[in-house]
């Protein structure tokens, strides 16, 4: 399953903090850096290419259907 | 008299007062009206005017009654009062003497609000320790409000404008009228049942009168908000109105639009955040690489790696050091023993053994001489002692006594001390100092 934007961003945040804490070996740090940069790119792409989600409404029968504001 | 037809004003007013006081319909009157010209006298009596659309009446509420009221009356407040009508002769006015007063309508709601607020505050429902944090980047937002009207429109358009990738689920609810509170509670429980994976829940409606907003001041709504696990943003009414729901919610927004702004970030905020992460990552990795390169350079440039032979030289030198140390040690030890040996060899005794002999001989001679002297001394001393003893013995020697003229009588070698042991014609021996006498007993005298 594709990683959600929110999870990817959270992961990115965790890695940055971990690296900046200075407790990572060089090899590990480079791996983590590579991973983090991928995550950043992924988040960025996801964020800027994302199409607006359709709003939903819960019906009396507990079904979620599309919801449009009637102006 | 002409002047007699003129009444004193006080008499007239007193008379009119009795007319009021005697009228049974005016002894107990119930009025509904709005307070104006309200004045709280320092002595505790309340003076005000009650009015409706077309008329007004002065009112007084004495301290003894006023202490019983549970709200703060003020101008513009609609009240229900109970009292009697009478006249104040000094001013010629009639007024209502109020016994009881309570807020009418809105006022009652206000009291309920304050009571419930105090009760829930005491229970801790508003306490900061229960406030859940609102996630910064929500994936899915639940909204409880009416499906039509400004509130839902404002919320959805704000979310769409700021963070369109966020999903929304509307849980439609009545937000006005008698059924609104249970409906809102039902939808809170539905939204919070875990099936919808909501990151945050917005509960609200647009502004309105206090009656319109009343569902959000109901206790069941407050408790449902408090018990929900999902963080809740309340967005009720206008900015100045606080509802009980606002106090209980994890966050309070002044308007539905404000709630949506609190619930979601903007795309550009997140973009900035990602950019800053990238910058931090690059800074970090450049730093790290630079630091490690420096370390590597330090190591590769080190003297040892550049001059591997020097490693060998170093060992050689060390070996020499050890050998030197060892040699030094051995030489020193040998010198030590040599010295001891020479000392012994050169010693006086070894060089002059006769001395030792003479020394011993001298000592022997001395001992001999000493021995002789000592023996002589002992002999002399013992001789002297002997003489003393002899003399002492001489004193006690029975033979010595004979010398003084005494004599010893024996019979058959037994010394006779008692005449009763003798009888006539016994032969006895008498020993004198010089010589013995043998004699025969002629007569015995007994004692």
Structure in words:
- The complex is a heterodimer of chains A (71) and B (447).
- Chain A has one domain.
- In chain A, 58% of the residues lie in helices and 8% in strands.
- Chain A has a two-stranded antiparallel ribbon.
- The longest helix of chain A is centred in the middle third of the chain and has 24 residues.
- Chain A is elongated.
- With 447 residues, chain B is α/β, with parallel strands linked by helices.
- Among the domains of chain B are: 98 residues, Nucleic acid-binding proteins (OB fold (Dihydrolipoamide Acetyltransferase, E2P), Beta Barrel); 155 residues, Succinyl-CoA synthetase domains (Rossmann fold, 3-Layer(aba) Sandwich); 39 residues, no CATH class.
- Chain B contains 14 helices and 14 strands.
- Chain B has a five-stranded mixed barrel. In chain B, strands 7-6-8-9-10 form a five-stranded parallel sheet.
- In chain B, helix 4 runs parallel beside helix 8 and helix 5 packs parallel to helix 6.
- Chains A and B meet through helix 1, helix 2 and strand 1 of A and helix 4, strand 7 and helix 9 of B.
Helix/strand layout:
The complex is a heterodimer of chains A (about 70) and B (about 450).
Chain A: H1 5-21, H2 26-49, E1 56-58, E2 64-66
Antiparallel strand pairs in A: 1-2
Chain B: H1 9-22, E1 29-40, E2 46-51, E3 56-61, H2 63-66, E4 78-88, E5 93-103, H3 106-123, E6 140-145, H4 150-162, E7 167-172, H5 180-191, E8 200-205, H6 219-227, E9 232-236, H7 244-248, E10 251-253, H8 256-263, H9 267-300, H10 303-306, H11 308-345, H12 348-351, H13 353-396, H14 398-403, E11 408-411, E12 414-415, E13 427-431, E14 436-440
Parallel strand pairs in B: 3-5, 6-7, 6-8, 8-9, 9-10
Antiparallel strand pairs in B: 1-2, 1-4, 2-3, 4-5, 11-12, 11-13, 13-14
CATH class type of one domain in chain B = Alpha Beta
Overall shape of chain B: it is elongated
CATH superfamily of one domain in chain B: Succinyl-CoA synthetase domains
What is the count of β-strands of chain B? 14
Oligomer: heterodimer
Major beta sheet, strand line-up of chain A: 1-2
Strand content of chain B: 15-25%
Number of separate helices of chain B: 14
Q: What is the mean predicted local confidence, pLDDT of chain A?
A: 83
In the predicted model, the low-confidence regions of chain A spanning at least 5 consecutive residues are none
**Count of folded domains of chain A:** 1
